[in-house]
Design goal:
With 566 residues, chain A is of the alpha/beta class. Chain A has 23 helices and 20 strands. Classes of the chains: A alpha/beta (566), B alpha+beta (163). The complex binds thiamine diphosphate and magnesium ion.
Chain lengths: 566, 163
């Protein structure tokens, strides 16, 4: 059947199983909106800012594992998506971003609302397409989804000029796609896996170091099975949280700049690091010259460029982490005797780790007069559902969430790790809630970042998305203030927010419910009341203003040079 | 160390800018780049001359391979390829040095492709070291203008790029 390009685009989304998109109309996408008017198979959610729409598609993708989709008009609509795209790119989130473009004959003429969005987003997309002929549209859409979700996932942008949306052609959706220049290596090389297992069983101070790749690759189960089989200690990055249950005795929690003492000590003293879907980011390694000086390194990653980028690697395995871990489990099962030997041999290592855990556990000093943020996080864990989805913004509250919430399931933490984007938390939660209307979705924000996309309160209320918004209000850009306290002599330059905001009234203005307290004794009551609400809620906790995130490895210091307490 | 890398790419919209922005965005050196379509439909070939230690070169090759439009990347540095470059060189050629220019052109098996009473324009082809050498000799005689294509390279032996 002949259709116009706008309709074909929607039919392609349907073929890809897309049920929800986040989009904002404008001149160069008005034809798509006209088709959407009668296209009932796809739910369209109208955010109040394209950046938020992009973060929502990202939150949807992180929570579900499917490709998140958003739509924006050309020019300012497209540029508003850039932060969201870069956020997704840094954390390898599968997304398809559709932007309108001025009609092809006008491209390059500085037409009204024309920007070269392909050029602008080139460094922060996995790939992008400009559709110049409606006959190519279906194949391009097929390729876009395929590229976004396979290999190391990432955002793919499709720029769709207005005349292509209007032009008509026969709609045929390709059944399969084959791109000769894009063939990600998925199966881990069996001999490399055998070698890895041999190295692991010879090790006496091994640590498994897990990144976001294990979550994105849906490998949490295999990871957990393997590590429990071997009783090997596991530490995760911020992005890896949830891939291995933090309530497991072998969990060391998060490592890195604000990681657990035991995790950083284990890395520094290990003789073998098994990196799974992690990229040795500078927030994780600390000073490279002194990073894990005694360790050999096995690195499993689907993206060959991650391997040997920052650290030397003794055994690289390129492949899908789920496949590699499954092969490792099989291998371990073949070597039962050796595994038993190994478990005995690493007993002293477990003792060392237990010693570090006991010496400096992640902790804080609670108070009866002022609310400690860590206490709020612990209460949230205690009172929320097991499968609650938590998103965070960026700052101190993000680190307290990572340290104190305890993540036991994959895809329950949505956080901007690589780009560290303030304003991410609220719209990402919105996307997750759209995907899972029946699950508890909580966003934990700072008073600074929550105001970067606060307009999405309207979207939540309008679309009946009952996100529970927690604001840990220190009336500071807390994380920057902490750096100023520690490294700039307490010169709090532009980090005090000064103007207090009445968040209860703000919630009210949007037609949502608001709670606020500054009393530790009321924390539980507020959380319980908020969780009972059917709609979106703001819970403001006025917290100890100058509380710090500790421990901390100062930027550029070695991983074992941690500031432990104030 | 200098490396000559051959990159086979899909002849897609924007592929040159993807490669170029990879080099600028990641701070890789780009000494020269040449690109043109090949005998195969829809495929172009770039030859890139770059520098860096082993680890950087490994990253460059991997990052190039990671670009969706890149079909194949070959590093010819180990002598597995032959390399050629062409230069167009305009030199001052007046009374006393006209003969000297001609002699140099002859020694390097270059060609004169444009003549005026005051100048010669020379076409020289060879591996980049040879081009450097002829330039070395011509420079004292008065080099007015120079255009180099950058290297192009191809694998030695009977095999094509598909093996
Ligand atoms: C868009 C953006 N701008 C600036 C920063 C730098 N930054 C990182 S944390 C932070 C402070 C965040 O303050 P708030 O949201 O109140 O959270 P808190 O640290 O107080 O918990 C800032 C400004 C950032 N990460 N993102
Ligand atoms: Mg704050």
């Amino acid at each position: 059947m002949k259709m116009n390009g706008a309709r074909i685009m929607l039919e392609c989304l349907k073929k890809e199983g897309v049920d929800t998109i986040f989009g904002y109309p404008g001149g160069t996408v008005i034809n798509i909106y006209d088709e959407l008017f009668s296209f009932k198979e796809i739910r369209h959610i109208l955010p109040r800012h394209e950046q938020a729409g992009t973060h929502a598609a990202d939150g949807y993708a992180r929570a579900t594992g499917r490709v998140g989709v958003c739509l924006a008009t050309s020019g300012p609509g497209a540029t508003n998506t850039v932060t969201g795209i870069a956020t997704a790119y840094m954390d390898s989130i599968p997304m398809v971003i559709i932007t309108g473009q001025v009609p092809t004959p006008l491209i390059g003429n500085d037409a009204f609302q024309e920007v070269d969005i392909i050029g602008i987003t080139r460094p922060c997309t996995k790939h992008s397409f400009l559709v110049r002929d409606v006959k190519d549209l279906a194949l391009i859409m097929k390729k876009a989804f395929y590229i976004a979700r396979t290999g190391r996932p990432g955002p793919v942008l499709v720029d769709l000029p207005k005349d292509v949306q209007i032009a008509q052609t026969e709609f045929i959706y390709p059944e399969t796609v084959d791109i000769r220049s894009y063939k990600p290596t998925l199966g881990g090389h069996p001999r490399q896996v055998e070698k890895a297992m041999a190295m692991m069983l010879e090790a006496r101070r091994p640590v498994v170091y897990v990144g976001g790749g294990a979550v994105l690759g849906n490998a949490a189960e295999e990871l957990t099975v393997l590590c429990r089989k071997l009783t090997i200690p596991v530490t995760t990055t911020l992005m890896g949280l949830g891939s291995f249950p933090e309530n497991d005795p072998n969990s060391l929690g998060m490592l890195g700049m604000h990681g657990a003492y035991c995790a950083n000590m284990a890395m520094t003293n290990s003789d073998l690091i098994i990196a799974i879907g992690a990229r040795f980011d500078d927030r994780v390694t600390g000073k490279l010259a002194t990073f894990a000086p005694h360790a050999r390194i096995i690195h499993v990653d689907v993206d060959p460029t991650s391997i040997k980028k920052n650290v030397r690697v003794d055994l690289p395995i390129v492949g899908d982490v789920k496949d590699v871990l499954a092969k490792m489990i099989k291998q371990a099962d073949k070597l039962k005797d050796k595994v038993a030997e190994f478990q005995t041999a690493i007993a002293p290592w477990h003792d060392d780790i237990a010693g570090w855990k006991a010496k400096h556990p992640i902790g804080y000093k609670n108070s009866t007069t002022v609310i400690k943020p860590q206490f709020v996080i612990q209460k949230l864990r205690e009172l929320s559902d097991d499968d609650a989805i938590i998103s965070t913004d960026v700052g101190q509250h993000q680190m307290w969430t990572a340290q104190f919430f305890q993540f036991n399931k994959p895809r329950t933490l949505l956080t901007s790790g690589g780009l560290g984007t303030m304003g991410y938390g609220l719209p990402a939660a919105m996307g997750a809630q759209a995907a899972f209307p029946g699950r508890q979705v909580i966003t934990i924000c700072g008073d600074g970042g929550v105001q970067m996309n606060i307009q999405e309160m309207a979207t939540l209320v309008q679309n009946k998305l009952p996100v529970k918004i927690v604001i840990l209000n220190n009336n500071f850009l807390g994380m920057v203030r902490q750096w100023q306290e520690l490294f700039f002599d307490k010169r709090y330059s532009s980090t005090c927010m000064e103007l207090p905001i009445d968040f209860v009234k703000l919630a009210d203005a949007y037609g949502a419910k608001g709670f606020s307290t500054s009393k530790p004794g009321e924390v539980e009551k507020v959380i319980k009341a908020a969780f009972k609400e059917k709609g979106p809620v703001i819970m403001e906790f006025k917290i100890a203003r100058e509380e710090k995130v500790l421990p901390m490895v100062p930027a550029g210091a070695a991983l074992n040079e941690m500031v432990l307490n104030a | 160390m200098q490396h000559t890398i051959s990159v086979l790419v899909e002849n897609e919209f924007g592929v040159l800018s993807r490669v170029a922005s990879l080099f600028s965005g990641r701070g890789f050196n780009l000494d020269s780049l040449s690109v043109a379509p090949t005998n195969e439909e829809g495929m172009s070939r770039m030859t890139i001359v770059t520098r860096g230690d082993e680890q950087i070169l490994e990253q460059i090759t991997k990052q190039l391979n990671k670009l969706i439009d890149v079909i194949k990347v070959v590093d010819f540095t180990d002598g597995s390829g032959v390399e050629r470059e062409m230069a167009l060189i305009k030199v001052t050629a007046e009374d006393d040095n006209r003969a000297e220019v001609l002699r140099i052109v002859d020694i390097f098996r270059a060609k004169i492709i444009d003549v005026t009473p005051k100048s010669y324009t020379i076409e020289a082809t060879g591996n980049p070291v040879k081009i450097d050498a002829i330039l070395e000799l011509l420079r004292p005689l008065g080099l007015k203008e120079l255009v180099r294509t950058g290297s192009v390279a191809i694998g030695r032996g009977a095999k094509g790029w598909k093996g």
